[in-house]
Write a structure and sequence with these properties.
It contains 30 helices and 24 strands. The longest helix is centred in the N-terminal third of the chain and has 20 residues. By secondary structure, it is an alpha/beta fold. Helix 5 packs across helix 9, helix 14 runs antiparallel to helix 27 and helix 17 crosses helix 21. It starts with a strand and ends with a strand.
């Protein structure tokens, strides 16, 4: 008898799959690990595997659980399953980790000590509650930024740790974070609310503390399917392992080479150790790519092959070599941006859509110059999953300080930063300032001065406002003495903005710091129209114009701009990878932390495999970024790519290429004739083991930058350093 998927038989369905996909779909092993390379059809495999389990293995949809990482992916999976089977599978649980955890907690609210109608805090609500807790503890928000406390608490929960699980320490920072966590937990329990990280932790505790409940779900869910397995964190993996127990099977689909979210808790170790944790696992590698040309895949394979900690696979395609990868060495970041804009213009002239192209970059701060070039060329663009440079929170705050320095009666700027960073000026104080301003028909600044002079508030609030007034007066007093970029640097430093974001841990805090430093760079490069007039008002006017409604509408054909992290899961016929330089990509921070360089390499792999037909790699000989000029060699990721798939772009020009290009290009590298290479491990008789980050010059007299595990980065003269290669 022929079994059917809805109206289609097994044979016709399997004919749509390549041999590796068919092997994954039909595997009868209890546990399956599908290593799905970029563009290899992993969603198709997941959907067909579910159909196979229902129609061939006779598992009820009620006995299947499918976990994804986004609501969009969950909806797409459900729609494709329904379409394939020709019927709706309402009894099947398909959703995100957070969505499924919420469903469990709503059904078992008594078992997890929650009120029946418990509320979920979003990120902003959680931050407000953390601030409330810290105020009750009389903690100075400038010294202890609430966002940092929020990040720390969520990080502990992602590891499955309650405050009671964490040992006290003599470290003042960790001790304070622990005190905040304890108090925060008490408040949440008292008022019956939970945050997003708590959803997962509380669901894990449901399994751990209620054997009968766990057994019920273990018997119910005969098979569990997990998408993007490489992105699971500690608590998610523990939850899955408990649920699977010794009975349920698991299909884990993921790609260790695309694990790029370590900074937010994802553990690539989960997929690397899957075969150890689940006995009798069958592993299938999906290596046939349906997205990119052979040249693009050759580049991706060569880059990722340098990572030691990987399960290993090699992407291939039968769609042909395609065009070579173009490599452009720009003089500076402005030349790079103009070149990209010019290539995009030609692309559109050839009849292509702008939305089929994307510019990818490692750091958000890079978008400023790229945006300016696109505006100059009248090319509509859209920032995918983010904001334009001058719309970002930290930039608007910094600009508000500059506006106040120029005009202290700017009410909008005053309201925005009067308590940013936090300085003890609460909502009630600001409301009193507003009332006085309305009563006397004066600016908020004048009202604040009046309140301080007449001491209309409690001493603590009065002093806080007085300190703010003094700060702005002192900053304004130096306007005429400093060039524009120093005014900006002075503003973000004296205001405390830069320090506030430096204390924010993780990728977001680092990005905000880099954006503020890039604002200084924008000021350094600003050319005023009238050199006889003050430069700050001209700069602020230009920013206002650049910040106008120039980003493309949602339905307008527009180029996509995004960070490499945002690009995961997307694909475009035309892709530009901008800023392919050492210290920018790989990011300089990755060279100092164990494991980060491998994640940067995975990020490069993700970026390259977004391209379907044409890929451009660009780098700049010199780059003014984060407020200073840098001269970096071409990225090691570019040097990893085989020369036979790359075509170096040589623009016709009477200006010769700078000599540093010969050192930074593919023909030779800085550090030639030294016997060493970038990224190589070395040993120094005094400093111990380290890794080579950069060279200045060639031969024995070259200066070599080495990051040592114990003493940080040192610059050594190679001839006298006596380095030993490891």
């Amino acid at each position: 008898m022929l079994l059917e998927y809805g109206s289609m038989d097994v044979t016709s369905i399997l004919n749509q799959l390549n041999p590796a996909q068919e092997e994954a779909v039909t595997s009868d092993k209890p546990h399956l690990l599908v290593l799905a390379g970029a563009g290899s059809g992993k969603t198709r495999v997941l959907v067909h595997r579910i159909a196979w389990k229902i129609q061939v293995d006779n598992i009820s949809p009620y006995g299947l659980l499918a976990v994804t990482f986004t609501n969009k992916a969950a909806r797409e999976m459900r729609e494709r399953i329904d379409e394939l089977l020709g019927m709706s599978l309402r009894g099947m649980w398909v959703g995100t980790f957070h969505g499924l955890a919420h469903r469990l907690l709503k059904a078992h609210w008594r078992d997890v000590n929650l009120p029946e109608n418990f509320q979920i805090l979003d990120s902003d609500d959680q931050l407000r509650l953390v601030k409330r807790v810290m105020r009750s503890m009389d903690l100075d928000e400038q010294r202890w930024p609430p966002k940092q406390a929020q990040w720390w608490i969520n990080g502990q929960k992602d590891e499955g740790l309650r405050a009671a699980h964490i040992q006290e320490t003599s470290d003042p920072h960790l001790l304070t974070m622990l005190r905040i966590y304890r108090e925060y937990e008490e408040v949440c329990n008292r008022i019956g609310v939970i945050d997003f990280a708590e959803l997962l932790l509380r669901a894990l505790e449901l399994w751990k503390n209620n054997p009968a409940v766990l057994e019920h779900y273990q018997q119910r869910f005969q098979h569990i399917l997990v998408d993007e397995f490489q992105d699971t964190n500690a608590v998610q993996y523990a939850w899955l392992r408990l649920l699977a127990g010794k009975v349920s099977g698991i299909t884990a689909v993921g790609d260790d080479d695309q694990s790029i979210y370590g900074w937010r808790g994802a553990k690539v170790e989960n997929i690397l150790s899957y075969e150890r944790h689940f006995a009798d696992t069958h592993t299938v590698k999906l290596e046939q790519n349906y997205r990119s040309t052979s040249n693009i895949l050759g580049a991706a394979n060569a880059v990722i092959a340098k990572n030691a900690e990987r399960l290993g696979k090699n992407l291939w395609t039968d769609s042909g070599e395609g065009e070579p990868i173009a490599l452009y060495a720009a003089f500076n970041e402005h030349d790079e941006a103009r070149y990209i804009a010019d290539r995009l213009h030609s692309w559109v002239q050839q009849g292509n859509r702008r939305e089929d192209s994307a510019i990818l970059y490692r750091s958000n701060a890079q978008s400023r110059v790229l945006e300016a070039a696109l505006l100059q060329a009248d090319i509509p663009y859209r920032i995918y999953g983010g904001q334009r440079f001058y719309e970002r929170l930290e930039i608007k705050n910094a600009l508000s300080y500059l506006r106040l320095m120029m005009n202290c009666h700017d009410d909008t700027a005053f309201e925005r930063v009067v308590n940013v960073p936090p300085r003890g000026i609460g909502d009630r104080t600001v409301e009193m300032i507003r009332e006085v301003a309305r009563e006397h028909q004066v600016s908020l600044w004048a009202a604040a001065e009046k309140i301080v002079t007449e001491k209309r508030m409690a001493a603590r609030a009065t002093n806080a406002v007085a300190v703010f007034i003094q700060l702005i007066n002192e900053m304004s007093g130096q306007l005429d003495e400093l060039p524009l970029h120093e005014q900006a640097d002075h503003a973000i430093d004296r205001s405390g903005l830069i320090e506030m974001h430096r204390r924010e841990k993780g990728e977001r805090g680092q990005a905000r710091v880099e954006n503020l430093e890039e604002l200084v760079g924008a000021c350094r490069n600003f050319e005023p129209e009238d050199k006889d007039q003050p430069i700050l008002p001209q700069f602020l006017d230009q920013v206002a114009l650049d910040s106008g409604d120039r980003q493309a509408d949602e339905d307008q054909d527009a180029v996509q701009l995004m960070t490499l992290h945002s690009a995961k899961g997307l694909e475009f016929p035309l892709v530009f990878l901008a800023g392919m330089e050492e210290n920018l990509f790989p990011h300089k921070m990755s060279l100092e932390e164990p494991g980060r360089l491998e994640e940067e390499r995975r990020l490069a792999y993700v970026g390259i495999t977004r391209a379907m037909q044409k890929l451009y790699l660009t780098f700049a000989e010199s780059r003014s970024i984060y407020g200073s000029e840098s001269f970096n060699s071409v990225s090691r990721f570019v040097r990893d790519i085989p020369k036979d798939v790359i075509e170096e772009v040589r623009l016709q020009s009477t200006v010769s290429r700078p000599t540093s290009y010969a050192r930074g290009g593919l023909s030779s590298d800085q550090g030639d004739d030294t016997g060493f290479a970038l990224g190589q491990g070395v040993n120094h008789q005094v400093y111990g083991e380290g890794v080579i980050l950069n060279f200045e010059g060639n031969g024995p007299r070259a200066r070599v930058h080495v990051s040592f595990a114990d003493v940080g980065t040192k610059i050594l003269i190679l001839a006298s350093a006596n380095l030993i290669a490891l």
